[in-house]
Queue: 2 jobs
Job 1
Amino acid sequence: MTVRKLWIGLAMVLLSSFAVLIYFGRDIYHQLPPIPDQVTDESGNVLFTGQDIRDGQNVWQSIGGQTVGSIWGHGSYIAPDWTADYLHRESVIMLHALATADQKDYAQLPDDIQAMYQQRLKNIIRKNTFDAVTNTIIFAAPRVTAFNELATYYGNLFMREGDPAFSKLREQYAIPGHTIKDPERMRKMNAFFAWSTWVCITERPGGTVSYTNNWPGDETVGNVPSSSLHLWSGFSVLLLLACTALLILYHARNAEEHPAILPDEDPLRHTVITPSMKATLKYFWIVSALIIVQMLAGVITAHYGVEGNAFYGLPLDKFLPASVSRSWHVQLAIFWIATSWLATGLYIAPAVSGYEPKFQRLGVNILFGALLIVVVGSLVGQWLGVMQKLGLVDNFLWGHQGYEYIELGRIWQILLLVGLVIWLVLMLRALLPALRKKDESRHLLTLFVIASIAIAVFYAAGLMYGRQTHMAVAEYWRWWVVHLWVEGFFEVFATVVGAFLFCRLGLLQIRSATTAVLFSTIIFLFGGIIGTFHHLYFSATPISVLALGATFSALEIVPLVVIGYEAYHNYTLSKATPWIRAYKWPIYCLVAMCFWNFLGAGIFGFAINPPIALYYIQGLNTTAVHGHAALFGVYGILGIGLMLFVLRGLYPGRQWNDQLLGWSFWLTNIGLLVMVTVSMLPMGILQAIASIQHGYWYARSAEFMHTDTMQTLRWLRVPGDILLAAGESLLVIFVIGLKTGWSLKEER
C-alpha cells in the first residue's frame, strides 16, 4: 500500500471517527437523566432541590470524589460505590417499610411472600416519577423513609468521629472522621447520593431499562443485564476474531523491510548536542524524583486497604488521607510519564532537523519552570481541597475536581494546557527546517507533528465541562482526556518517536518505517477514537453509546494480537551489531512495553471491555489490574525507555556501568507482574464471582472486602510492591550515577 493511500486512509479515519464521537456525544446531552428543580414527597413537601444536587456533587468532589469510592462505577476501590451502596440500603429499608405498613416483619416472611414485596418494591422504585411540566421528581412514602434514614447513616459515616458504631466501618473504607465538617454540606451530598442512585434504578421514558442500562446489578430491585448487553458483547467478540484474521493476513503479505547492511558504528554517537538538548537533562532528574514520590504515595494508598486509618500504627490519615495519597499516586504517574515523553520530543526535534532556533534553550527552561509550578501547585491544592480548607468554588479552581486522572483544579488544568502549547511551539520551531525538506522522512515527520499537535490540543477537552456540569456530560469529556489524550495520541507519538530512533540508528529503512507507522496508526485510531465510548456504558448514556463502545473497543485489541512480532523484532535489533549493545536496556524497555501492551492492554483490557463483563466488574480490582498493567506497564516503561535513549545521547562518549540498570529492569517488570497476578487479579476474580452471585453492592462492601481471604490477598501484594519499588529505586540511583560518575565506565 502506498504512503499516499495510507494518508488518505488516516484522514478518513480521523474525520469519520470524530464525527461519530461528536454526533453520538450529542445524544448524551439530549438524553440526560433530569436534574429537577425539586424532589418532593407525595404531599408536595420538598425533600431537596436541584441546586442541592449540584452543590452536593461539588461537596463529593471536594472530599476527593472518585478517589473515595465511586459513582456509577468510576473511581477508587477501597470505599464502596456509593450508588450501589445507597441502592441496596434503600431497597432493604423500603422492603421493611412496605411489610411494616401491613403489620409484618419482612425478615420473618416466607420466600414467596418476600417475592411479592420485592415486586411491589420494583413497581415503586423503577417507576419514572419525573414530572416534566413541574420539573419535579416525586418520592413515594417508603422511599422518603429510606431517604431520611440514609441521610442519618451517611451523616454519621462522614461526620461523626467518636461514634464507635461507625469507627470500624470508616477504617475499612479509609475515610477519616470529620471528612465533612459542615452539616449543610453533608445534607447536600446526601441529596446528590439520592439523585445519582435514582438515575441507576429509574427506567428511561418509554423503556424498560434504567438510565444507567440497569447498572449496578441487583436482582432484588430488578437491575439485571438487558438483552443489549448480551447482543453487543457477542458481536464485539465476533468482530474481534474477524478483524484479527484480516490483520494477520495483511501482516503476512507486507513484511517489514530491514537494512541489508548495518552501520559499522553508532550513527548517533557524533550527534551535535545543542544547548536546548542539554537543557532537557533536568527534566529527567525531575522524572526520577517524581517516580520515587509516586511510588511512596502508592505504598501508602495500598496499605490503607488493610489499615484504613493509619500506616503501620502511625495515624497518617489525619494529615494524608487515602483520597489525597491516591490522587497524588495517579496524578504523579501521569506527570512523570508525560514529562519523560515531552522531554524526549524536545531532545529529538533539534536532533532530527540539525537546527537550534534562537532562544530555544530559554524556552525549554521556561517550560521546565512552568511544569514544576503546575506539579507542586496542583498537589498542594488537592490536599487543601480534601482537607476542607477551600470553599466549593475555590476547590474547583485550585483544589480537587474529584474526577479520576484529572483531579487537579481548573486553574492548574489551564496552566498545564498553556505549558503543552509552549511545548508544541518549541517543537515546531525546531522541526521547521526538516519539514521544508522534500526527502522521504517528511511523512514520518508530518505524523510526528500531527501527534504533537494532538497532545497539546486534546488536553483542552478537560475544560469542556464546568463546576456543576451534569455528571454524564463531565464523564463524556473526561474520557476524551483519559482515553484520547493519554491512551490515544501519546501512543501515536511514542510509536513515531520509536520509529525515528530506529531509523536514525540505521536499523530500519525510513520508507518501510513510515508505512508501518502510518498503518499502525490507522488501525489503532480506527478502534481507539470511537472506542472511547466503552468507558461510558453505565454513565447514564443511551444504548447507542453502548453499542458503538462495545464494537469499536474490540477493534482496539486487534493490533495487539501481532505485537509479539514487534517484541521479537525489537529484541533481535538489540543484538544486531556490537555497538547496539549500548542501547540494550532502552530497547529492552520497548520489548517489555510490547509484552505489557499485549497482557495489560490486550488480555486484561479486553477481559473488562465487553458490556456483559463490565456490567459485573466495573470498578472492581479487575479494573485496577488493567490500570496498573497498562498505565505503568505500557506507558510508564515506555517513558523509562525513552528517557534512557535520551540519556544515552547526552552521555555519548562513555560506556555505561549498567549492572544497576539491568537489575532495575528485571525487578520492575517482575515486581509489576507479581503484584498484579498474585494479589490484584485474584481479588478481582473473587469480587466478580461475588458480584454475579449476590449483586455488585456486595462485591464492593466492607463485609466482603474484609474477609480473611481478601485481606490475605491484599497482604500478598507486598512482595510485588517491594520488587517494583526496588527496581524503580535502582533506576533513580543509576540516573544519579550518570551525574556523579558511578554509572559511567571507559570511553566507547
Job 2
Amino acid sequence: MTSVEGEITYPGDPMCLYAALSVVVDSGLRSARHGAGDGSPFSDLCPDWGTPVTKRQRLTAEHGLRAWDENDSTPDHTVFDPRVWDERAQADLRAELVRRQPRVLLISTVSPGHRYALEMAAVARDVVPDCLVVFGGRHIDETMRYVPAGKTLALEYSSTLRAIDDGRVGPVVDFLVSGEGYFALDLLMRAIALAMDLGRTRARVGDVVRMLDLLGAAGERIPGSSLICAVLPEAVEAFPVRGPQFDLAGLPSPYQGFAVRSRFPVFPLADGSAARTAHMTVSNACPYHCDFCSESAVLAGGLKRFVESPAEAALERVCEYVSYGAEAVFFDDSIFWSGTFPAIRAFCAALRGARTASGSEELPERCRKWIRDDADWERLRNLQVGCQVTVDLLTTLHKEQDVREVLDALREAGCTYLYMGIESMSAEVMQHVHKNVRRSTDFPWNAKVRMALERIRDAGIPVGSSVLFGLEGETRLSIEETISEVGQLIDDGLLVLASPNILTYHPGTPITRAHGMTEKLDYHSPDVENRPPYTFFEEAFPGVVSLRLSEEEVWFIHEATAKRWGTVRNSAEPETRTAAAVTV
C-alpha cells in the first residue's frame, strides 16, 4: 500500500495466509521433530518449514517488509508479503524464487489482489517451472464451489478457473483450495509429498491427483467443508470434502510459525510508538447477511466458533500471543464473539482475572506455560484489546443496562478501542441494509448510531468507524447527509477515527447480482489503471465500484470527507492490495 507521498505503509500481518497454514505448519513441524515413519503426519518427505521461531526472534521481529537473511531458517521467513506490487517487488520475488527453488508456492489472495496473485504465479512459472502453484484465500472461496446435486463446479466469471478456461489468463495455477481449507491444504500437501520422486523431490499434478484418489480410497477423512481442484491440461479434477464439524479453538495457533509484526497506531504505548499487535479471531464469519458484504456466514458456508471452554481457550491464545511479544490484541471477528453477550462477559472476566493475577498460581493451568518471565507479566498486565461491534448490538438487540454492563466489562478487561460499521447516515440508504434490524420510524438509524456511540463514550472506550458510500439508494443528497452527520459525531467527540470506503463488488454478494455485475468483474487483467480517485479508497478499482456512484461523486467523497472530517479521517492515502505468498 502506497501513500500519496510515495511512502510504502504496512498494515497488519497476513492473517488469511497464517490461518490457512495453521494445520499444515503444525503437521510439518511435528513431522520434523518426530522423523519419518508412523506417528508423523508426513511419513517421508515433508514441507521444509525450518526450525521453530525462537522467543528472541519474535521479540526482535520488525514491522514492515521482511529483509532477506540467509541465517533465518524459520517458517516466518518462508513468507513473501510485498504489500505493494511494483517493479521492486517483482524483482524481489524473482530473486527469492531463484534463491529458494521452492517445490510449492502457496498464494493467498482477496479479489482486489487476484490480478497480482496471477502475476506472481506467472513469475514462478518462469523462474521455477516445476514448482507447484496453489491458490487460496477469500477470492477463491467466493468464486469456486462444488454443487453436490449435479456433481459440478459453480464458477463465477471472476474465478481463476474460468479466466484460465476462456483464455483471459494463462494456465499458471496447479491447485486451488476453497472453503474451510485448513485440513484440505494439509491433505493436499501430504499428497504432494507422497507423489514426489525422492531423487528430484518434485511432483507433477497428475501424480498428485492419483495420490489424492488413493488417499480417498484408503478411507482418508478430514474435518470441514472444502474443495480442492487440480488443473490438468485436459480437465479440472475436483475433490469435494464433506467432513465432520470442528471447533475453531482446536486449530493450531496461526502464529505458531510466525512472528507478530503488526503495529497499530490505535494502540499507543507510553513512548508514543504503536504497540506490537496480534490478530485473533474466535469466530470465522458474520451472523448477519448484509447484501454488500463477503463476510456473511451464508457465503462462508456456516459460522465456526470457539466451542469447547471458549473463554478459557481464548484466554490461553491471548497469553500465547503475549509470550510472543504482543502488547495488544485486535479481534478480527466481524462481530466480537458473534455478538453473544454471555460469551463476551465470560471472556472479559477471564482476561481481567489473568491481568490482575498476582502470580502464576492464580492463572488457569493452561496459561501458565506461556506467562513465564517478568516481561511476559508486564505485557499481560498492560495489554490493550480491540474488537468490532455493531450499532444494533449496542442499541435495539439488548436492554440498555445489559449493554452498559458489557461495555464496562470490556473496559475492565483492557479494551481500549472499538470499531463499528456506520455504513451510512441516510435512512433511504439504510432501509436496504440488513444490518439495520428492528427498524422503526420512531428510532431511525442515525439516532441508533448516536446512541451506540454515546454508550461507548460513557464507558470510556475510544471508537473508530467505517462509512460505506455507493449502497442501494445512494444519491448526492444522501452522500452529503452522511458526510455532514458523521462530521457532527466527530465534533461531538464520539469518534476518534472515520474511514470512508467505496462499495466494491465482491463476486459472491447479493448486491453484485442485483446490480448486474456478476459477469463483468475484472479482477484478472494486469493492466487496469488504478488511478485517483479510486486509489484513495481501500479495494476500489475502476470497473468494480458501485454503479450508483459516478467518478465525479467518488472525487467528491474523497475531497469532502478530507475537508469535513479532518485528521479523524482514515484511509486518506491511496492503497493497492496485494497477495501474500509462502514458499516451501
